[in-house]
Task: structure prediction
Amino acid sequence: MSEKYEDPQVLDAEHITPPAVYDHAEDSVDGPEPTEEEWASLRESADSIPVSAFLVILIEFCERFTYYGLTGPFQNYIQNPAPPSYPADVPGALGRGQQTATALNTFFQFWCYITPIFGAIVADQYLGKYRAILIFSMIYLVGLIILTTTSIPSAIDSGASFPGFVVSLIVIGFGTGGIKANVSPLVAEQYRSKVPFVRTLKTGERVIVTPRATYQKIFNMFYWGINIGGLSAIATTEMEKNIGFWSAYLLPTCMFIPAIIVVVMGRKRYIQNPPRGSIFVEAGRLFRLSWQVKGGLEACKPSRLEVDHPDKMANVTWDDIFVDELKRALKACTVFCWFPIYWLCYSQMTTNLVSQAATMWTGNVPNDIMQNIDPLVLIITIPLMDRLVYPGLRRVGIPMGPIFRITLGFIFASAGLAYTAGIQSLIYKNQPELISAGIQIPSYIFIAISEIFASITGLEYAYKKAPESMKSLVMAIFLFMNCFGSVLQFALVSVTVDPKLTWMYTGIAAAMGICAPLFWICHHKADATDIEEDAIVRRGEQEDAYMAHKPTIAEYEKDLKQEA
Result:
Protein backbone atom coordinates (compact mmCIF):
# COMPACT_ATOMS: atom_id res chain seq x y z
CA MET A 1 0.00 0.00 0.00
CA SER A 2 1.40 3.38 -0.97
CA GLU A 3 1.79 6.23 1.47
CA LYS A 4 -1.45 8.15 2.01
CA TYR A 5 -2.25 11.83 2.33
CA GLU A 6 -4.42 12.66 5.31
CA ASP A 7 -7.42 14.65 4.21
CA PRO A 8 -10.75 14.54 6.09
CA GLN A 9 -12.73 15.52 2.99
CA VAL A 10 -11.37 12.94 0.54
CA LEU A 11 -12.96 9.51 0.32
CA ASP A 12 -12.56 6.24 -1.50
CA ALA A 13 -14.82 5.80 -4.50
CA GLU A 14 -16.54 2.68 -3.21
CA HIS A 15 -16.57 3.00 0.57
CA ILE A 16 -17.80 5.97 2.58
CA THR A 17 -15.88 5.95 5.87
CA PRO A 18 -15.24 9.21 7.72
CA PRO A 19 -12.61 10.43 8.15
CA ALA A 20 -11.11 9.05 5.00
CA VAL A 21 -7.80 9.38 3.21
CA TYR A 22 -6.68 9.66 -0.35
CA ASP A 23 -4.56 6.88 -1.75
CA HIS A 24 -3.58 6.05 -5.27
CA ALA A 25 -6.29 3.59 -6.28
CA GLU A 26 -7.13 5.56 -9.40
CA ASP A 27 -5.06 3.28 -11.60
CA SER A 28 -7.04 0.18 -10.65
CA VAL A 29 -8.92 -1.44 -13.53
CA ASP A 30 -11.08 -4.52 -13.96
CA GLY A 31 -9.25 -5.98 -16.96
CA PRO A 32 -5.85 -6.26 -18.64
CA GLU A 33 -4.28 -3.44 -20.60
CA PRO A 34 -4.87 -3.86 -24.35
CA THR A 35 -2.18 -5.19 -26.64
CA GLU A 36 -1.34 -3.69 -30.02
CA GLU A 37 -3.40 -6.38 -31.72
CA GLU A 38 -6.40 -5.62 -29.51
CA TRP A 39 -6.07 -1.90 -30.25
CA ALA A 40 -6.27 -2.76 -33.93
CA SER A 41 -9.25 -5.12 -33.66
CA LEU A 42 -11.42 -3.99 -30.72
CA ARG A 43 -13.58 -0.92 -30.50
CA GLU A 44 -13.40 1.75 -27.80
CA SER A 45 -16.12 1.92 -25.15
CA ALA A 46 -16.97 4.18 -22.24
CA ASP A 47 -16.99 3.00 -18.63
CA SER A 48 -19.92 3.50 -16.25
CA ILE A 49 -20.22 6.88 -14.50
CA PRO A 50 -19.84 6.91 -10.67
CA VAL A 51 -22.75 8.03 -8.50
CA SER A 52 -20.63 10.83 -7.05
CA ALA A 53 -20.32 12.31 -10.55
CA PHE A 54 -24.10 12.58 -10.78
CA LEU A 55 -24.11 14.50 -7.49
CA VAL A 56 -21.71 17.03 -8.99
CA ILE A 57 -23.92 17.21 -12.10
CA LEU A 58 -26.85 17.97 -9.77
CA ILE A 59 -24.88 20.87 -8.28
CA GLU A 60 -24.20 22.21 -11.74
CA PHE A 61 -27.87 21.82 -12.68
CA CYS A 62 -28.95 24.00 -9.74
CA GLU A 63 -26.26 26.61 -10.44
CA ARG A 64 -27.07 26.80 -14.14
CA PHE A 65 -30.80 26.95 -13.37
CA THR A 66 -29.97 30.03 -11.35
CA TYR A 67 -27.57 31.56 -13.88
CA TYR A 68 -29.74 31.17 -16.97
CA GLY A 69 -32.88 32.03 -15.05
CA LEU A 70 -31.25 35.37 -14.23
CA THR A 71 -29.62 36.15 -17.54
CA GLY A 72 -32.68 35.26 -19.63
CA PRO A 73 -34.49 38.50 -18.65
CA PHE A 74 -31.35 40.68 -18.54
CA GLN A 75 -31.64 42.15 -22.05
CA ASN A 76 -35.24 43.31 -21.55
CA TYR A 77 -34.51 44.41 -17.95
CA ILE A 78 -31.79 46.78 -19.12
CA GLN A 79 -33.06 47.81 -22.56
CA ASN A 80 -36.73 48.66 -22.07
CA PRO A 81 -38.46 51.16 -19.75
CA ALA A 82 -40.78 49.93 -17.03
CA PRO A 83 -44.32 49.31 -18.37
CA PRO A 84 -47.29 51.00 -16.67
CA SER A 85 -48.66 47.64 -15.53
CA TYR A 86 -48.33 43.86 -15.84
CA PRO A 87 -48.87 41.72 -17.88
CA ALA A 88 -46.75 43.76 -20.31
CA ASP A 89 -46.30 43.45 -24.06
CA VAL A 90 -42.58 44.21 -23.73
CA PRO A 91 -41.34 44.07 -20.14
CA GLY A 92 -38.57 46.35 -18.95
CA ALA A 93 -37.19 48.27 -16.00
CA LEU A 94 -34.07 50.36 -16.58
CA GLY A 95 -34.82 51.79 -20.07
CA ARG A 96 -31.17 52.13 -21.13
CA GLY A 97 -31.53 51.01 -24.78
CA GLN A 98 -30.18 48.11 -26.87
CA GLN A 99 -26.55 49.25 -26.99
CA THR A 100 -26.28 49.62 -23.22
CA ALA A 101 -28.10 46.32 -22.72
CA THR A 102 -25.74 44.51 -25.09
CA ALA A 103 -22.72 46.20 -23.50
CA LEU A 104 -23.71 45.25 -19.93
CA ASN A 105 -24.60 41.71 -20.97
CA THR A 106 -21.24 41.44 -22.67
CA PHE A 107 -19.46 42.84 -19.61
CA PHE A 108 -21.18 40.25 -17.44
CA GLN A 109 -20.09 37.44 -19.74
CA PHE A 110 -16.56 38.85 -19.72
CA TRP A 111 -16.52 39.07 -15.93
CA CYS A 112 -17.97 35.58 -15.48
CA TYR A 113 -15.18 34.10 -17.58
CA ILE A 114 -12.24 36.05 -16.15
CA THR A 115 -13.02 35.25 -12.51
CA PRO A 116 -12.46 31.50 -13.01
CA ILE A 117 -8.72 32.25 -13.14
CA PHE A 118 -8.83 33.43 -9.53
CA GLY A 119 -11.10 30.56 -8.52
CA ALA A 120 -8.73 28.08 -10.12
CA ILE A 121 -5.67 29.44 -8.32
CA VAL A 122 -7.47 29.35 -4.99
CA ALA A 123 -8.57 25.75 -5.57
CA ASP A 124 -5.42 24.26 -7.09
CA GLN A 125 -2.99 25.95 -4.75
CA TYR A 126 -4.78 26.44 -1.44
CA LEU A 127 -8.28 25.11 -0.77
CA GLY A 128 -9.03 22.27 -3.16
CA LYS A 129 -12.04 22.20 -5.45
CA TYR A 130 -14.67 21.25 -2.88
CA ARG A 131 -13.92 24.03 -0.40
CA ALA A 132 -13.54 26.57 -3.22
CA ILE A 133 -16.98 25.68 -4.61
CA LEU A 134 -18.53 26.06 -1.15
CA ILE A 135 -17.00 29.49 -0.48
CA PHE A 136 -17.83 30.88 -3.93
CA SER A 137 -21.40 29.58 -3.57
CA MET A 138 -21.86 31.82 -0.53
CA ILE A 139 -20.57 34.83 -2.48
CA TYR A 140 -22.93 33.94 -5.33
CA LEU A 141 -25.90 33.89 -2.92
CA VAL A 142 -25.10 37.41 -1.68
CA GLY A 143 -25.21 38.71 -5.26
CA LEU A 144 -28.54 36.99 -5.88
CA ILE A 145 -30.07 38.67 -2.84
CA ILE A 146 -28.84 42.10 -4.01
CA LEU A 147 -30.29 41.59 -7.49
CA THR A 148 -33.66 40.38 -6.25
CA THR A 149 -34.18 43.10 -3.65
CA THR A 150 -33.22 45.92 -6.04
CA SER A 151 -35.63 44.71 -8.74
CA ILE A 152 -38.81 45.25 -6.73
CA PRO A 153 -41.12 48.02 -8.09
CA SER A 154 -40.28 50.52 -5.34
CA ALA A 155 -36.54 50.15 -6.05
CA ILE A 156 -37.15 50.68 -9.78
CA ASP A 157 -39.22 53.82 -9.09
CA SER A 158 -36.58 55.25 -6.74
CA GLY A 159 -33.71 54.71 -9.20
CA ALA A 160 -31.93 52.19 -6.98
CA SER A 161 -32.25 49.34 -9.48
CA PHE A 162 -29.44 50.36 -11.84
CA PRO A 163 -26.66 50.67 -9.23
CA GLY A 164 -28.00 47.58 -7.49
CA PHE A 165 -27.94 45.71 -10.79
CA VAL A 166 -24.32 46.67 -11.49
CA VAL A 167 -23.19 45.62 -7.99
CA SER A 168 -25.06 42.32 -8.29
CA LEU A 169 -23.39 41.61 -11.66
CA ILE A 170 -19.96 41.97 -10.07
CA VAL A 171 -20.75 39.81 -7.03
CA ILE A 172 -22.62 37.11 -8.98
CA GLY A 173 -19.92 37.00 -11.64
CA PHE A 174 -17.26 36.54 -8.97
CA GLY A 175 -19.23 33.71 -7.40
CA THR A 176 -20.13 31.88 -10.58
CA GLY A 177 -16.57 32.19 -11.89
CA GLY A 178 -15.18 30.49 -8.81
CA ILE A 179 -17.67 27.66 -9.15
CA LYS A 180 -17.25 27.34 -12.91
CA ALA A 181 -13.49 26.76 -12.76
CA ASN A 182 -13.84 23.91 -10.28
CA VAL A 183 -17.09 22.06 -10.80
CA SER A 184 -16.25 20.57 -14.22
CA PRO A 185 -12.83 19.23 -13.09
CA LEU A 186 -14.52 17.90 -9.95
CA VAL A 187 -17.06 15.90 -11.95
CA ALA A 188 -14.29 14.34 -14.03
CA GLU A 189 -12.24 13.50 -10.94
CA GLN A 190 -15.00 11.18 -9.79
CA TYR A 191 -13.79 8.71 -12.44
CA ARG A 192 -10.49 7.29 -11.23
CA SER A 193 -9.23 4.93 -13.94
CA LYS A 194 -6.44 6.55 -15.94
CA VAL A 195 -5.45 3.73 -18.28
CA PRO A 196 -7.39 1.77 -20.93
CA PHE A 197 -8.28 -1.86 -20.26
CA VAL A 198 -10.07 -4.72 -21.98
CA ARG A 199 -13.56 -5.68 -20.79
CA THR A 200 -15.89 -8.45 -21.92
CA LEU A 201 -19.50 -7.27 -22.19
CA LYS A 202 -22.54 -9.35 -21.30
CA THR A 203 -23.04 -9.93 -25.01
CA GLY A 204 -19.64 -11.60 -25.15
CA GLU A 205 -18.08 -8.75 -27.12
CA ARG A 206 -14.64 -7.65 -25.96
CA VAL A 207 -14.06 -3.89 -25.95
CA ILE A 208 -11.34 -1.49 -24.86
CA VAL A 209 -12.63 0.77 -22.09
CA THR A 210 -10.73 4.05 -22.42
CA PRO A 211 -10.57 7.20 -20.29
CA ARG A 212 -11.07 9.20 -23.50
CA ALA A 213 -14.46 7.65 -24.24
CA THR A 214 -15.47 7.80 -20.58
CA TYR A 215 -14.60 11.47 -20.16
CA GLN A 216 -16.50 12.20 -23.36
CA LYS A 217 -19.53 10.50 -21.81
CA ILE A 218 -19.09 12.32 -18.48
CA PHE A 219 -18.87 15.75 -20.08
CA ASN A 220 -21.83 15.00 -22.34
CA MET A 221 -23.89 14.23 -19.23
CA PHE A 222 -22.46 17.27 -17.46
CA TYR A 223 -23.46 19.54 -20.34
CA TRP A 224 -26.85 17.87 -20.51
CA GLY A 225 -27.37 18.84 -16.85
CA ILE A 226 -26.33 22.40 -17.67
CA ASN A 227 -28.99 22.69 -20.35
CA ILE A 228 -31.72 21.10 -18.26
CA GLY A 229 -31.00 23.90 -15.81
CA GLY A 230 -30.90 26.39 -18.65
CA LEU A 231 -34.60 25.80 -19.31
CA SER A 232 -35.28 27.95 -16.25
CA ALA A 233 -35.28 30.93 -18.60
CA ILE A 234 -38.64 29.71 -19.96
CA ALA A 235 -40.18 30.27 -16.54
CA THR A 236 -38.36 33.50 -15.71
CA THR A 237 -39.11 35.17 -19.05
CA GLU A 238 -42.80 34.36 -18.58
CA MET A 239 -42.67 35.72 -15.03
CA GLU A 240 -40.98 38.97 -16.10
CA LYS A 241 -43.74 39.50 -18.68
CA ASN A 242 -46.72 38.64 -16.50
CA ILE A 243 -45.64 39.47 -12.93
CA GLY A 244 -42.45 41.53 -12.90
CA PHE A 245 -38.70 41.14 -12.73
CA TRP A 246 -38.57 40.69 -8.96
CA SER A 247 -40.39 37.36 -9.33
CA ALA A 248 -38.18 36.34 -12.25
CA TYR A 249 -35.10 36.81 -10.05
CA LEU A 250 -36.62 35.37 -6.87
CA LEU A 251 -37.15 31.94 -8.44
CA PRO A 252 -33.46 31.39 -9.37
CA THR A 253 -32.39 32.73 -5.98
CA CYS A 254 -34.54 30.14 -4.23
CA MET A 255 -33.29 27.41 -6.57
CA PHE A 256 -29.68 28.15 -5.68
CA ILE A 257 -30.22 27.05 -2.08
CA PRO A 258 -30.55 23.33 -3.03
CA ALA A 259 -27.18 23.64 -4.79
CA ILE A 260 -25.53 24.67 -1.53
CA ILE A 261 -27.35 21.87 0.31
CA VAL A 262 -26.09 19.26 -2.19
CA VAL A 263 -22.55 20.61 -1.84
CA VAL A 264 -22.65 20.29 1.94
CA MET A 265 -24.64 17.06 2.31
CA GLY A 266 -22.69 15.20 -0.36
CA ARG A 267 -19.24 16.14 0.93
CA LYS A 268 -18.45 12.59 2.14
CA ARG A 269 -19.17 11.05 -1.24
CA TYR A 270 -16.95 13.17 -3.46
CA ILE A 271 -13.54 11.92 -4.51
CA GLN A 272 -11.21 14.89 -4.23
CA ASN A 273 -7.60 15.57 -5.03
CA PRO A 274 -5.91 17.71 -2.37
CA PRO A 275 -4.45 21.09 -3.39
CA ARG A 276 -0.91 20.66 -4.70
CA GLY A 277 0.53 23.94 -3.41
CA SER A 278 3.21 26.00 -5.11
CA ILE A 279 2.62 24.92 -8.71
CA PHE A 280 3.16 28.36 -10.25
CA VAL A 281 6.55 28.93 -8.70
CA GLU A 282 7.57 25.45 -9.79
CA ALA A 283 6.37 26.02 -13.36
CA GLY A 284 8.06 29.42 -13.38
CA ARG A 285 11.40 27.87 -12.41
CA LEU A 286 11.00 25.25 -15.09
CA PHE A 287 10.35 27.88 -17.78
CA ARG A 288 13.26 29.99 -16.59
CA LEU A 289 15.59 27.00 -16.79
CA SER A 290 14.29 26.16 -20.28
CA TRP A 291 15.60 29.52 -21.45
CA GLN A 292 19.04 28.79 -20.01
CA VAL A 293 19.66 25.38 -21.58
CA LYS A 294 19.44 24.20 -25.16
CA GLY A 295 16.54 21.91 -26.01
CA GLY A 296 13.70 23.75 -24.29
CA LEU A 297 11.43 21.97 -21.83
CA GLU A 298 12.52 18.51 -22.96
CA ALA A 299 16.09 19.30 -21.92
CA CYS A 300 14.83 20.30 -18.46
CA LYS A 301 13.77 16.80 -17.50
CA PRO A 302 15.81 15.68 -14.46
CA SER A 303 16.90 12.54 -16.32
CA ARG A 304 18.43 14.78 -19.01
CA LEU A 305 19.83 17.39 -16.65
CA GLU A 306 21.72 14.80 -14.62
CA VAL A 307 23.66 13.93 -17.75
CA ASP A 308 23.91 17.22 -19.64
CA HIS A 309 23.76 19.87 -16.89
CA PRO A 310 24.39 18.34 -13.44
CA ASP A 311 25.17 21.82 -12.09
CA LYS A 312 21.50 22.82 -12.69
CA MET A 313 20.03 20.06 -10.50
CA ALA A 314 20.22 22.03 -7.24
CA ASN A 315 16.93 23.88 -7.77
CA VAL A 316 15.04 21.14 -9.62
CA THR A 317 11.82 20.24 -7.78
CA TRP A 318 9.97 18.56 -10.66
CA ASP A 319 10.21 15.16 -12.31
CA ASP A 320 10.12 13.97 -15.92
CA ILE A 321 6.35 13.42 -15.86
CA PHE A 322 5.67 16.99 -14.75
CA VAL A 323 7.56 18.28 -17.80
CA ASP A 324 5.50 16.04 -20.10
CA GLU A 325 2.28 17.16 -18.39
CA LEU A 326 3.18 20.83 -18.75
CA LYS A 327 4.08 20.42 -22.44
CA ARG A 328 0.74 18.72 -23.03
CA ALA A 329 -1.11 21.53 -21.23
CA LEU A 330 0.65 24.21 -23.27
CA LYS A 331 -0.27 22.38 -26.46
CA ALA A 332 -3.91 22.34 -25.33
CA CYS A 333 -3.83 26.08 -24.63
CA THR A 334 -2.88 26.74 -28.26
CA VAL A 335 -6.07 24.90 -29.24
CA PHE A 336 -8.09 27.17 -26.93
CA CYS A 337 -6.75 30.28 -28.68
CA TRP A 338 -9.18 29.66 -31.56
CA PHE A 339 -12.28 29.81 -29.35
CA PRO A 340 -12.85 33.60 -28.98
CA ILE A 341 -14.48 33.83 -32.42
CA TYR A 342 -16.66 30.85 -31.49
CA TRP A 343 -17.79 32.51 -28.25
CA LEU A 344 -18.53 35.68 -30.19
CA CYS A 345 -20.93 33.62 -32.32
CA TYR A 346 -22.48 32.02 -29.25
CA SER A 347 -23.00 35.32 -27.41
CA GLN A 348 -25.32 36.63 -30.14
CA MET A 349 -27.91 34.15 -28.91
CA THR A 350 -28.37 35.89 -25.55
CA THR A 351 -28.04 39.47 -26.77
CA ASN A 352 -28.75 40.55 -30.31
CA LEU A 353 -30.99 37.63 -31.26
CA VAL A 354 -33.20 38.55 -28.30
CA SER A 355 -33.43 42.11 -29.59
CA GLN A 356 -34.06 40.79 -33.09
CA ALA A 357 -37.01 38.75 -31.83
CA ALA A 358 -38.46 41.91 -30.25
CA THR A 359 -38.89 43.36 -33.78
CA MET A 360 -40.78 40.26 -34.94
CA TRP A 361 -44.18 38.74 -34.23
CA THR A 362 -44.06 36.52 -31.13
CA GLY A 363 -47.75 36.07 -30.37
CA ASN A 364 -48.41 35.92 -26.64
CA VAL A 365 -44.95 34.73 -25.62
CA PRO A 366 -42.03 36.97 -24.55
CA ASN A 367 -39.42 37.82 -27.16
CA ASP A 368 -36.59 36.47 -24.98
CA ILE A 369 -38.15 33.02 -24.65
CA MET A 370 -36.80 32.10 -28.09
CA GLN A 371 -33.29 31.54 -26.73
CA ASN A 372 -34.59 28.49 -24.86
CA ILE A 373 -34.73 26.60 -28.15
CA ASP A 374 -30.98 26.12 -27.69
CA PRO A 375 -31.15 24.10 -24.43
CA LEU A 376 -34.19 22.20 -25.71
CA VAL A 377 -32.24 21.05 -28.75
CA LEU A 378 -29.28 20.09 -26.55
CA ILE A 379 -31.43 18.10 -24.13
CA ILE A 380 -32.75 16.03 -27.01
CA THR A 381 -29.54 15.76 -29.01
CA ILE A 382 -26.89 15.08 -26.35
CA PRO A 383 -28.35 11.68 -25.29
CA LEU A 384 -28.66 10.70 -28.95
CA MET A 385 -25.03 11.57 -29.56
CA ASP A 386 -23.89 9.82 -26.38
CA ARG A 387 -25.90 6.63 -26.80
CA LEU A 388 -26.18 6.24 -30.58
CA VAL A 389 -23.96 8.44 -32.73
CA TYR A 390 -20.62 8.33 -30.90
CA PRO A 391 -20.81 4.60 -29.98
CA GLY A 392 -21.96 3.80 -33.52
CA LEU A 393 -19.02 5.66 -35.03
CA ARG A 394 -16.59 3.97 -32.63
CA ARG A 395 -18.12 0.61 -33.60
CA VAL A 396 -17.14 1.16 -37.23
CA GLY A 397 -13.71 2.47 -36.32
CA ILE A 398 -14.37 6.24 -36.40
CA PRO A 399 -13.73 7.56 -32.88
CA MET A 400 -14.06 11.27 -33.89
CA GLY A 401 -11.08 12.85 -32.17
CA PRO A 402 -11.44 16.11 -30.26
CA ILE A 403 -9.89 18.31 -32.97
CA PHE A 404 -12.30 16.97 -35.59
CA ARG A 405 -15.28 17.56 -33.28
CA ILE A 406 -14.21 21.12 -32.49
CA THR A 407 -13.81 21.84 -36.21
CA LEU A 408 -17.37 20.65 -36.82
CA GLY A 409 -18.54 22.90 -34.00
CA PHE A 410 -16.93 25.92 -35.63
CA ILE A 411 -18.60 25.09 -38.95
CA PHE A 412 -22.07 24.85 -37.40
CA ALA A 413 -21.55 28.12 -35.51
CA SER A 414 -20.64 29.87 -38.75
CA ALA A 415 -23.74 28.45 -40.43
CA GLY A 416 -25.92 29.68 -37.57
CA LEU A 417 -24.69 33.27 -37.87
CA ALA A 418 -24.93 33.20 -41.67
CA TYR A 419 -28.56 32.15 -41.37
CA THR A 420 -29.17 34.92 -38.80
CA ALA A 421 -27.74 37.47 -41.23
CA GLY A 422 -30.29 36.28 -43.78
CA ILE A 423 -33.11 36.76 -41.27
CA GLN A 424 -31.96 40.33 -40.52
CA SER A 425 -31.85 41.14 -44.22
CA LEU A 426 -35.39 39.79 -44.59
CA ILE A 427 -36.58 41.98 -41.70
CA TYR A 428 -35.14 45.10 -43.34
CA LYS A 429 -36.73 44.25 -46.70
CA ASN A 430 -40.23 43.58 -45.27
CA GLN A 431 -40.69 46.52 -42.89
CA PRO A 432 -43.27 47.40 -41.60
CA GLU A 433 -44.69 43.90 -42.12
CA LEU A 434 -44.01 41.72 -39.07
CA ILE A 435 -42.27 38.36 -39.56
CA SER A 436 -42.82 35.44 -37.21
CA ALA A 437 -40.01 34.93 -34.67
CA GLY A 438 -40.31 31.21 -35.43
CA ILE A 439 -38.01 31.83 -38.37
CA GLN A 440 -35.19 32.14 -35.82
CA ILE A 441 -35.42 28.47 -34.82
CA PRO A 442 -32.70 27.21 -37.22
CA SER A 443 -30.28 29.80 -35.82
CA TYR A 444 -30.63 28.28 -32.36
CA ILE A 445 -30.44 24.73 -33.71
CA PHE A 446 -27.15 25.47 -35.49
CA ILE A 447 -25.69 27.04 -32.32
CA ALA A 448 -26.86 24.10 -30.18
CA ILE A 449 -25.24 21.54 -32.47
CA SER A 450 -22.06 23.61 -32.48
CA GLU A 451 -21.98 23.44 -28.67
CA ILE A 452 -22.08 19.63 -28.75
CA PHE A 453 -18.99 19.53 -30.93
CA ALA A 454 -17.04 22.60 -29.75
CA SER A 455 -18.04 23.56 -26.21
CA ILE A 456 -18.42 20.08 -24.70
CA THR A 457 -15.24 18.87 -26.39
CA GLY A 458 -13.41 21.95 -25.12
CA LEU A 459 -14.33 21.08 -21.52
CA GLU A 460 -13.21 17.49 -22.06
CA TYR A 461 -9.96 18.57 -23.71
CA ALA A 462 -9.13 21.06 -20.96
CA TYR A 463 -9.49 18.40 -18.27
CA LYS A 464 -7.65 15.61 -20.08
CA LYS A 465 -4.64 17.67 -21.09
CA ALA A 466 -4.04 19.42 -17.77
CA PRO A 467 -1.54 18.18 -15.16
CA GLU A 468 -3.18 16.85 -11.98
CA SER A 469 -1.94 19.91 -10.10
CA MET A 470 -3.41 22.34 -12.67
CA LYS A 471 -6.82 20.90 -13.58
CA SER A 472 -8.81 23.93 -12.44
CA LEU A 473 -6.33 26.40 -13.90
CA VAL A 474 -6.28 24.89 -17.40
CA MET A 475 -10.09 24.68 -17.27
CA ALA A 476 -10.14 28.37 -16.31
CA ILE A 477 -7.86 29.20 -19.25
CA PHE A 478 -10.32 27.47 -21.58
CA LEU A 479 -13.20 29.43 -20.04
CA PHE A 480 -11.10 32.61 -20.21
CA MET A 481 -11.29 32.44 -24.01
CA ASN A 482 -14.91 33.52 -23.58
CA CYS A 483 -13.55 36.81 -22.23
CA PHE A 484 -11.81 37.51 -25.52
CA GLY A 485 -15.08 36.75 -27.28
CA SER A 486 -16.70 39.38 -25.05
CA VAL A 487 -13.94 41.86 -25.93
CA LEU A 488 -14.74 41.30 -29.59
CA GLN A 489 -18.40 41.81 -28.81
CA PHE A 490 -17.56 45.09 -27.07
CA ALA A 491 -15.76 46.18 -30.23
CA LEU A 492 -18.94 45.51 -32.21
CA VAL A 493 -21.30 47.44 -29.92
CA SER A 494 -21.16 50.46 -32.23
CA VAL A 495 -22.63 48.40 -35.09
CA THR A 496 -25.39 46.71 -33.06
CA VAL A 497 -27.86 49.25 -34.44
CA ASP A 498 -30.08 49.41 -37.50
CA PRO A 499 -29.32 49.20 -40.37
CA LYS A 500 -25.87 47.70 -39.69
CA LEU A 501 -26.94 44.42 -38.09
CA THR A 502 -26.98 42.38 -41.29
CA TRP A 503 -23.33 43.16 -41.96
CA MET A 504 -22.41 42.49 -38.34
CA TYR A 505 -23.87 38.97 -38.48
CA THR A 506 -22.29 38.39 -41.90
CA GLY A 507 -18.86 39.46 -40.67
CA ILE A 508 -18.97 37.17 -37.63
CA ALA A 509 -20.13 34.23 -39.76
CA ALA A 510 -17.32 34.83 -42.26
CA ALA A 511 -14.69 35.06 -39.50
CA MET A 512 -15.83 31.77 -38.00
CA GLY A 513 -16.03 30.16 -41.43
CA ILE A 514 -12.41 31.10 -42.11
CA CYS A 515 -11.22 29.90 -38.68
CA ALA A 516 -12.73 26.41 -39.04
CA PRO A 517 -10.49 25.07 -41.87
CA LEU A 518 -7.45 26.92 -40.52
CA PHE A 519 -7.97 25.30 -37.12
CA TRP A 520 -8.13 21.85 -38.73
CA ILE A 521 -5.02 22.46 -40.81
CA CYS A 522 -3.04 23.60 -37.76
CA HIS A 523 -4.13 20.98 -35.23
CA HIS A 524 -5.54 17.87 -36.94
CA LYS A 525 -2.39 15.85 -36.24
CA ALA A 526 -3.17 16.06 -32.51
CA ASP A 527 -6.03 13.56 -32.96
CA ALA A 528 -3.52 10.88 -33.94
CA THR A 529 -1.63 11.28 -30.65
CA ASP A 530 -4.62 11.95 -28.39
CA ILE A 531 -4.66 8.58 -26.61
CA GLU A 532 -0.88 8.53 -26.31
CA GLU A 533 -0.87 11.96 -24.64
CA ASP A 534 -3.70 11.00 -22.30
CA ALA A 535 -1.55 8.09 -21.11
CA ILE A 536 0.86 10.54 -19.43
CA VAL A 537 -0.26 9.90 -15.84
CA ARG A 538 1.34 9.31 -12.48
CA ARG A 539 1.13 5.98 -10.76
CA GLY A 540 0.91 5.82 -6.98
CA GLU A 541 4.59 5.48 -6.22
CA GLN A 542 5.52 8.23 -8.67
CA GLU A 543 3.07 10.64 -7.10
CA ASP A 544 4.24 9.80 -3.59
CA ALA A 545 7.88 10.36 -4.54
CA TYR A 546 7.07 13.62 -6.31
CA MET A 547 5.06 15.07 -3.44
CA ALA A 548 7.56 13.84 -0.85
CA HIS A 549 10.40 15.95 -2.24
CA LYS A 550 8.23 18.85 -3.42
CA PRO A 551 8.95 21.92 -1.23
CA THR A 552 6.17 23.80 0.53
CA ILE A 553 5.13 27.34 -0.42
CA ALA A 554 7.01 28.70 2.60
CA GLU A 555 10.16 26.90 1.46
CA TYR A 556 9.75 28.30 -2.04
CA GLU A 557 9.37 31.85 -0.69
CA LYS A 558 12.46 31.38 1.46
CA ASP A 559 14.45 30.22 -1.58
CA LEU A 560 13.23 33.14 -3.66
CA LYS A 561 14.33 35.62 -0.97
CA GLN A 562 17.75 34.01 -0.83
CA GLU A 563 18.06 34.19 -4.61
CA ALA A 564 17.00 37.85 -4.60
Remarks:
- The two ends are 42 Å apart (CA to CA).
